[in-house]
Amino acid sequence: MSTISDLPAVKQVSRDPAINQMVTLAGCENIPTVWDRLKSQQPQCKFATDGVCCRLCHMGPCRITPKAKYGICGADADTIAARNLLREIAAGSAAHSDHGRGLVRTLKMVAGGHGGDYRIADPRRLRETALFFGIETENRGDLEIAGDLADFYMRQFGWSESPNDTLRLAPEKRQAVWKKLDIEPRGIDSSVVELMHRTHMGVDHDYRHLIMAGLKCSLADGWVGSNIATTVSDILFGTPRPVRSKVNLGVLREDMVNVIVHGHEPTLSEMLAMASQDEDLVEYAKSKGAAGINLAGICCTANEVLMRHGLPIAGNFMQQELAILTGAVEVMVIDVQCVMPSLGQVAKCFHTRLVSTSEIAQTFEAEPINYEVEHGYEHARRILRIAIDNFENRDRGRVHIPRESMEVVAGFSNQTIFHMLGGRFRSTFRPLNDAIIDGRIRGVAGIVGCTNPKMPVDSHHVQLALELIERNVLVLETGCSAIACGKAGLLVPEASLSRAGATLREVCEAVGIPPILHMGSCVDNSRILMAATNVLHEGGLGQDISDLPVAGAAPEWMSEKAVAIGHYFVASGMYVVLGHPFYVAGSPNVNKFLTEEVESLTGGRFDWEPDPAKAADKMLAHIEKKRDALGINAKKERKLFDMKERRGIDE
Ligand code: SF4
Ligand code: MSK
């Protein structure tokens, strides 16, 4: 096996040297990775990327071309592109929401005394949530309340005559917009089913009508399923608080048993985090020649355990195969979503064992653990023993752990931001609102989503975040985007504050927050929606999310979940810039509807911009447009000569 120092010219697929080294190493070892398979897929089908390929019935498949403007049934490019897009929204919404359902089931089991070692970790969050939804809390125990809340949440999944109750979390004016447009979801499952029905051959054919249904379903994701997933995770595992840790492949340890948790559902990982501290297991690891057990994460399971336990992150989506290629991973525990089917092929080249923990997700070469909530802790201990026993099978000559690892501070839930902004005695968003109103913070941007081999990995996330904080825009991040910025050193206040514009820096230093806030996993995009809502409730910045000087971006997105997320942000009134468009280019009408016309309906719209500097320009232009509309830019001009401004100029 080659060593990293022997490598020929290192392949440049990322701004991250750890990725480049490992990809080059994989090439030397003839172990295919995602980049090789991307190459083997070239050229990618233009009918698919244009969204004008339909295989919804068996008269087809059909493709729209200049010569064939209609499919066999008569569907045109608009109908076909819109239907394809809707099926992506349905899948993305289903993934987030099924994740939420799993957590509600766990909450119900805990409430009923069958939750094994799971507990109510944040009773305050439980009670506040229950109270908001009208569940009696006075003189009642936590478990009783938890049972009612679990039942209430479970009812959000099916179908109801009335809109989903959790939509009430949104600002009132936004709720009124949804009502007027008739896009209030009445159940998560029924919204997904409705999309599948509407897009069946021969049902809904008007592209505008179809896309409005897509927006409705996406709301069932963002304001219902994802919100439930985030809230129940906080109740069961604790609401995140700022925590320091490390990120990148260099967190793997040559002298320890390395276990990676990968996917999205944090339930079992919580138990793994606890069990990895068990003295008898640590002693057992030592008896096998290891210094201990090192638990690290990939993708959003990583973000969940980082935020609540400070566990290190080995990498984001594009690093899952590379982690195994280090030759130092004893077990990779996989749950659901974003797990590449190729992992088994890579693991076979090493001693790494894959353990799959979800009954709905099996991967080649993975050993299933039929995970049950009641026995979560035992499962966790069993997995750790498998890893410890596997340590002696590690081929020391094939271990190549890149040196790169970077400090991060994560764990910025809304509850934490409230406390940090408000200080010891009064939790409030007021200082943030005041800073936006007086222009020290121009606005707020959410940067979210995946990494993608079609572009230099991590680069666009990092460049966009830097461009924005330099222009005094506060950045909120989740998912793989947060991991990308973490690896670039932007999630430590000391480093990122030096890159921030003078006035943003002044505010962040005063309240003790970094200019880029890691808010969690993909389902935690619901925290970004709630952050916008909290800012509105604080007052002075309009009545609706569409009034706010905010913008969203997903520069390197790849998953159907990102499609759903983009739509619920637009349905909530936000301007969203994607690094590459949906597969709709073959339908100028659908494209126009998404990027222009929808704004007159929801107040939000999409934009496509591959260049992160230009994306930042566009986001800032939108933010300034909103500031103008609020009248706060004019206010700033009148204040040009006050002392605070003078100090700003003097700097
Ligand atoms: Fe072709 Fe229409 Fe069938 Fe699609 S639904 S495959 S366009 S015939
Ligand atoms: S893990 S959905 S690759 S952000 Fe949430 Fe990353 Fe995208 Fe998966």
- The CATH class of the largest domain is Alpha Beta
Fraction of residues in β-strands = 5-15%
Hetero groups in this structure are: iron/sulfur cluster, Broken Fe4S4 cluster
Alpha carbon gap, first and last residue = 55 Å
According to DSSP, the number of beta strands is 16
Structural class: alpha/beta
Q: Low-confidence segments, ≥5 residues, pLDDT <50?
A: 645-651
Number of domains: 3
Q: Helicity, in percent?
A: 40-55%
Q: Which sheet architecture does the biggest sheet show?
A: 6 strands, parallel
CATH architecture of the largest domain: 3-Layer(aba) Sandwich
Strand order of the largest sheet: 6-5-4-7-8-9
Q: What gross morphology would you assign?
A: globular
Helices, by number, come to 28
CATH topology name of the largest domain, in short, is: Rossmann fold
Cα radius of gyration in angstroms: 24 Å
Write a concise keyword list for the protein shown above.
651 residues, Substrate Binding Domain Of Dnak, Chain:A, Domain 2, Rossmann fold, 3 domains, six-stranded parallel sheet, 28 helices, disordered C terminus, binds iron/sulfur cluster, binds Broken Fe4S4 cluster
Describe this structure in words.
With 651 residues, the chain is an alpha/beta fold. The chain folds into 3 domains: 69-237, Substrate Binding Domain Of Dnak, Chain:A, Domain 2; 243-398, Rossmann fold (3-Layer(aba) Sandwich), CATH 3.40.50; 414-630, Rossmann fold (3-Layer(aba) Sandwich). 49% of the residues lie in helices and 10% in strands. The protein contains 28 helices and 16 strands. The strands form 4 sheets. A 6-stranded parallel β-sheet has the order 6-5-4-7-8-9. The longest helix has 35 residues, at 77-111. The radius of gyration is 24 Å and the shape is globular. The model is unreliable at 645-651 (pLDDT under 50). Bound molecules: iron/sulfur cluster (SF4) and Broken Fe4S4 cluster. Iron/sulfur cluster binds next to loops. Residues 54-57, 59-62, 71-73, 75, 80, 201 line the site of iron/sulfur cluster.
